[in-house]
Description:
Bound molecules: nicotinamide-adenine-dinucleotide
Helix content: 25-40%
CATH architecture of the largest domain: 3-Layer(aba) Sandwich
Strand content: 15-25%
Structural class: alpha/beta
Number of helices: 16
Largest sheet: 7 strands, mixed
CATH superfamily of the largest domain: Aldehyde Dehydrogenase, Chain A, domain 1
Distance between the termini: 86 Å
Strand order of the largest sheet: 15-16-17-14-13-19-20
Amino acid sequence: MSATAVKILPNYINGAWVPSASSELLDVQNPATGEVLSQVPLSGANDVDQAVQAARAAFPGWKAKSTIERARWLFGFRQLLEESKDRLAECVTLEMGKTFPDARAEVERMIEMVECACAIPTTMQGRNLEGVATNVDAETIRQPVGVCAAITPFNFPAMVPMWFLPFAVATGNTFILKPSEQVPMTQQIVFELIDGLGLPPGVVNMVNGSRDVVNGILDHPGIDAVSFVGSAATAQYIYERAAAKKKRVQALGGAKNSMVVMPDAVMDKTADNIIGSAFGAAGQRCMAGSIVVAVGGAWPELAKELVPRTEALTVGDGMEQGTSVGPVVSCEARDRIRGMIDTALEQGATLAVDGREPGLPDAGAYVGPTIVQGVTDAMEIAREEVFGPVLSVVEVDTLADAIAFVNGSRYGNGTSIFTESGAAVRRYRHEVEVGMIGVNVGVAAPVAFFPFSGWKDSFLGDLHAHGTDGVDFFTRKKTVTSRWFSDGQTGKYFVEQGD
Ligand code: NAD
């Protein structure tokens, strides 16, 4: 396909597809082949302003709808997503690279978010207490925050936008999405589906682009809350700039997740879990296990299981059947990942499996699964996020050493422990400074009805994404204290005690 023939993606504002005001375009490429799939406009503050005006105008009407009406809209949305699973998953694979089965699994998780938000007539309920004083009652109700915006990363083009959109809309907010400019096509399909659902114009909007759109969102006085998912550096920038403009913010950042393997772990099953965690989605998950912390001589036993399984993985186009590991998102990402492996070797690590040159055409962004052993605390690869199919191995003597290693990280997104000892699990769970923990589970990503509860530099804010935190983030509490002076029947006033 020639670059001149490809589609320029529109924005979706006020219930209509509109071209961006900006003429600056970025190619969207298939990372498996380098083919240009479409062009995404790098919209600016003007486009954001149009979306905000539409969302503000739609807000009072949408807020006034009954909760069950808003939930019914989600039922319809869920049905259309369900019917479009394959189309959505194909688009995820095409623009992001993960294998088609992995993309299907992502779409399933995306639909679960919408299903969970359908419970809003229950989950949005407030609290009340009769008799906080004599003849006085108090109740806390929840109301929507206003206009909410979400800025999302490349690695889950389908699911991550749905960590926010269904919860925001269900609770009565209006919404603006800024998808990743690297993978903007999947949300075009989602918004086509939304467009067919008869939602009042302005309730949901989408503005494509990169930094200018983000800055437009952060600075716009008409936006009340910002949700962000992406790298730690951007998360900090978003958190500070949005908070300075007095917005509510949740900013989910990067990760460096350790998998602690005790000597009593069931090694073959542990190896299977580690493979899925480290190399699934080519290591481009914020919950990917990136380091094995092998305790008390566990590494040689684990290596016997892990190394042959890793060598057996097939690298290729994610659309091809039998591919275990697809490309990473771009050739720039591939070169950066190879560079990090080379640096680790220069710093004294060695390779148990070398995937740097998987023998595929250079136009594809391929790095094969790689295991780096002999990694020490001081090396860059032990502490910085690689975001590629690279697993590092650190060896320590005791569980206490493992906990110290994990707690030494600036990140606190996810971690796993593999053992059959309940006592080791209990201690690990109690002492480790990480927000999501897997026990014999390689990818401990919470399902939709639990919060995505990263800690430290992996999360800035107070209320996490989805689960009950999602409802809390998208609502404001209002507490009403009431008293009635008469008895409700005769019109006589109560005689209050002390009168
Ligand atoms: P990224 O930070 O580069 O981009 C994320 C979003 O921010 C994009 O929409 C992008 O347009 C925008 N952006 C990027 N740089 C910006 C800047 N300087 N100013 C304003 N906006 C900017 O992240 P990515 O590469 O798309 O995604 C991968 C990262 O996301 C990894 O670090 C991964 O760990 C993280 N991630 C975290 C979670 C989590 O739940 N904590 C989930 C998924 C991904």
